[in-house]
From TrEMBL:
One of its GO terms (molecular function) is galactinol-sucrose galactosyltransferase activity. Transglycosidase operating by a ping-pong reaction mechanism. Involved in the synthesis of raffinose, a major soluble carbohydrate in seeds, roots and tubers. Keywords: Carbohydrate metabolism, Glycosyltransferase, Transferase. The keyword Transport does not apply. This is galactinol--sucrose galactosyltransferase. It is an enzyme of class 2 (transferase). Belongs to the glycosyl hydrolases 36 family. It comes from Punica granatum.
Length: 874
């Protein structure tokens, strides 16, 4: 088999494995000319768009399939994973749209990304000008040729720190994920090189050329090109990006060790481009994975089972004052209200720690691997933390118990002498100091950290984790991970030290926690990200701060934008929250569509059970979406925290529906001047934005037959209970004040016969209603040919006169498998003849004005049944 055949076979194999192909979704950044303010059936056609043009073509939406089969109804109930694999972009689609073009022979086949005449050119669009002569390009890696280009640089002298301009930005908008703290990233948008922050670890560009509307003809000249810049790890050096006052994009390389020097770099930044932003990002990070061979992608890792259950964390309930009794009180309190958690994280406060003698306010260090006196049973101290683990699992029915520890043991490390621990004093990078100058006087900088010998650290992790596993503990939350980058002096540098610690941690977790029980925290540096092969869940942003009113809108924006990058490598965890709080519903709804774990940190006795029951089923499970929640395409380069005009829209997928969350996050953001989160004035009290079905990027994948799907969607508004039919590419307005939100379940409409259309919504009292639908099958019956329509009306939109099946035969039967219990809802253009639950006919409600069908699932499926079997006869 020839090389080209091998490459094609590999590509087809990957497409098959991931279950995806990709088509570009066009973006409309201006309000549509027409939207639904009243439910008029003629509205869809008032745009003067032929019906054929409204139907999604092979270039709109996506052809990709969810990883669970939906063609065979029985296979859905057998689906064991919740994972939807990322999209793979169509290969070899070269755009030639707009912008300044490179002059030359147009018949020459050129790479999609290249440097020519000191310009960085991406799909014939110029991104950077004035590229210095010492910046070099490389189109290959150890894994072979790549679709993209690596950049490096050559310097005159060896050093441990280098900065080089890559060129001046031209005609682009960008979205950057940068570290505003040593531990955490946030988002920044702009269109000038000078606006790119220090410590940028992920950079996405959008060319301004061409139309922002999708090209129905498939001509890429009218499509936006998205370019991904990924600063990498090269040898012992870690790269990041930053801008300067000359609007240049700069590459910063540092080892973190004055003895670890280099002068030549060939693979420090990887650049990839495509017309689908999410596919371009996935393909770029996949190429980096194949090149570095030091980490794995999210879908290649085992997700710990806690992600499918509701949990409780002790941190904001007790902070470091957590006790055995406090943990039990919290579990009892939640169980009493009907929302019993199935996992608990016993956060900081359980370990044996002590300070250095003679210090007035000593920094605490770990003194032993076992629990402190607060978690020792008074009647039998030898049982230790096993006592509360047994109570949690046997008395309160928990499935999983996790505990917290720092990657260095504790905040101040391990007491010197244990595990080869020696005192080390953090050395901060210039970019970190720029945003956190106070760290220079932090207790760690003054008192130092007891750093275990890297050769001893596996023994520490294994002894700690094996002890915890022997007590019944199932996993760990590993905090303070970015501190390692500051401690590499004399040890080969930041990259080498981080790699050694993470290899040891991965090995210990794999050895001791079979469910891959590990959550990474305070870990947003690429030193750690690009050496993670085991950990599958990581915190997505700075903490939920219940007492800090400026933080809440910032938190939602940060978790969504950070998930664009982090979600390719791990499942982002959007953090705990309080169910009794002014922003409780704002936070809760976001967790419901995040795709990650859902857990609260309520104090015992302080719970909003009505809110929690929108998240948690009676068995403690949650309706988890399949992917990491991310901003919609038209939000990628808007700034919903700062610009005063944009709402944040977050999309995700379920098996047969999409979900769209809309948030007003304006009024507060990280202030680059004051170097802290601050409030700022907003232009208006309320902001109006627009949603459409295809804001859910992969919505065609929710269709049981995407080839026949017209593009129409049933949209259920969780806040108002309204059901609306949105024809393809038609939008509706959403108006929200600061700290307001709304959740929309989006389902492709299936046309069974003229006048007979259907779309399941799910459990409509839950935030992520559509997550309850586990299986869906449509049967078209003989009555479809005999069905009679009143007045000849064949529409599916709102305001269409409802029809009834007057024949003696059924038009169709819809089979739906539903997880959980509560009010089930669906759209039906015609009133059903009857509804069955199992084999029993049940009562149902039907709203002829909207087409909403409802029926009650009074309890969880009984016996061995995992789902309710619903049949709707039309």
């Amino acid at each position: 088999m020839g090389r080209s055949e091998l490459e094609m076979k590999e590509a087809l194999t990957m497409v098959s494995r991931l279950g995806y192909s990709s088509r570009s979704l066009g973006i409309c950044t201006t309000p549509p000319a027409v939207f639904f303010s009243s439910l008029s059936s003629t509205l869809a056609y008032s745009l003067n768009i032929p019906r054929a043009a409204q139907k999604p073509s092979s270039r709109s939406g996506s052809n990709c399939r969810l990883s669970c089969s939906k063609r065979a109804f029985s296979s859905v109930s057998d689906f064991k994973g919740r994972e939807v694999r990322p999209p793979l972009e169509k290969a070899n689609k070269e755009g030639n749209a707009g912008g300044e073009r490179e002059k030359g022979d147009i018949m020459t086949i050129k790479p999609a990304v290249r440097i020519a005449d000191r310009k960085l050119i991406v799909k014939d669009r110029i991104i950077l000008t004035g590229v210095p002569d010492n910046v070099i390009q490389n189109s290959g890696s150890d894994s072979g040729p790549v679709e993209g280009v690596f950049l490096g640089a050559v310097f005159d002298e060896e050093n441990c720190h280098h900065v080089v301009p890559l060129g001046t930005l031209q005609d682009v908008r960008f979205m950057a994920c940068f570290r505003f703290k040593l531990w955490w990233m946030a988002q920044k948008m702009g269109d000038k090189g000078s606006e790119i922050p220090f410590e940028t670890q992920f950079l996405l560009f959008e060319t301004k050329d061409g139309s922002r509307l999708e090209s129905d003809s498939g001509n890429e000249e009218n499509q936006i090109v998205y370019t991904v810049f990924l600063p990498l790890i090269e040898g012992s050096f870690r790269a990041c990006l930053q801008g300067n006052e000359r609007d240049e994009l700069e590459l910063c390389l540092e080892s973190g060790d004055c003895y670890t020097k280099a002068s030549s770099f060939t693979h420090s930044v990887f650049i990839h481009a495509g017309t689908d932003p999410f596919a371009a990002i996935h393909n770029a990070i996949r190429a980096v994975k194949l090149h570095l061979k030091t980490f794995r992608l999210r879908h290649e890792k085992k997700l710990p089972s806690i992600v499918d259950y509701f949990g409780w964390c002790t941190w904001d309930a007790f902070y470091q004052d957590v006790t055995h009794e406090g943990v039990e009180a919290g579990l009892a309190s939640l169980a009493a209200g009907g929302t019993a958690p199935k996992f608990v994280i016993i956060d900081d406060g359980w370990q044996s720690v002590g300070g250095d003698p003679g210090e007035e306010k000593p920094l605490l260090r770990l003194t032993g691997i076992k629990e402190n006196a607060k978690f020792q049973n008074k009647d039998d101290p030898t049982t230790g933390i096993k006592s509360i683990v047994n109570i949690a699992k046997e008395k309160y029915g928990l499935k999983y118990v996790y505990v917290w520890h720092a990657i260095t043991g504790y905040w101040g490390g391990v007491r010197p002498g244990q595990y080869g621990s020696l005192m080390k004093y953090p050395m901060l990078s210039k970019g970190v100091i720029e945003y956190e100058p106070a760290l220079k006087n932090d207790p760690l900088a003054v008192q130092g950290l007891g750093l275990m010998n890297p050769k001893e650290v596996y023994r520490f992790y294994n002894e700690l984790h094996s002890y915890l596993a022997s007590t019944g503990i199932d996993g760990v939350k590993v905090d303070e991970q970015c501190i390692l980058e500051t401690l590499g002096g004399g040890l080969g540098g930041r990259v080498e030290l981080t790699r050694q610690y993470h290899q040891a941690l991965d090995a210990s977790v794999a050895q001791n926690f079979p469910d891959n029980g590990c959550i990474a925290c305070m870990s947003h540096n690429t030193d750690a990200l690009y050496c993670s092969k085991q950990t599958a869940v990581m915190r997505a942003s700075d903490d939920f701060f219940p007492r800090d009113p400026v933080s809440h809108t910032i938190h939602i924006a940060a978790v969504a934008y950070n998930s664009i990058f982090l979600g390719e490598i791990m499942q982002p965890d959007w953090d705990m929250f309080h169910s009794v709080h002014p922003a409780a519903e704002y936070h809760a709804s976001a967790r419901a569509i995040s795709g990650g774990p859902v857990y609260v940190s309520d104090e015992p006795g302080k719970h909003n059970f009505e809110l929690l029951k929108k998240l948690v089923l009676p068995d403690g499970s949650v309706l988890r979406a399949c992917l990491p929640g991310r901003p919609t395409c038209d939000c990628l380069f808007c700034d919903p925290a700062r610009d005063g005009v944009s709402l944040l829209k977050i999309w995700n997928m379920n098996k047969y529906t999409g979900v769209l969350g809309v948030y007003n996050c304006q009024g507060a953001a990280y202030n680059l001047v004051e170097k802290k989160n601050t409030f700022h004035a907003t232009v208006s009290e309320s902001i109006t934005g627009y949603i459409r079905g295809r804001d859910v990027h992969l919505i065609s994948e929710a269709s049981t037959d995407s080839a026949e799907w017209t593009g129409d969607c049933a949209v259920y508004c969780q806040r108002s209970g309204r059901l609306i039919i949105l024809p393809f590419n038609v939008s509706m307005p959403v108006s929200l004040k600061v700290l307001e939100h709304d959740i929309f379940t989006v389902t492709p409409v299936k046309v069974l016969a003229p006048g007979f259309s259907f779309a399941p919504i799910g459990l409509i009292d839950m935030f992520n209603s559509g997550g309850a639908i586990e299986g869906l099958k449509y049967e078209v019956k003989g009555g479809a040919k005999l069905s009679e329509l009143e007045d000849g009306d064949e529409g599916t939109g709102p305001g269409v006169k409802r029809v009834e099946n007057r024949s003696n035969e059924l038009v169709g039967v819809v089979h739906v498998e539903v997880k959980g219990c509560g009010r089930f809802g669906a759209y039906s253009s015609a009133k059903p003849i009857r509804c069955l639950l199992g084999s029993k006919e049940v009562e149902f409600g039907y709203d002829s004005s909207s087409g909403l069908v409802t029926l009650e699932l009074a309890h969880l499926p009984e016996g061995s049944q995992r789902v309710h079997l619903i049949e709707v006869e039309l």
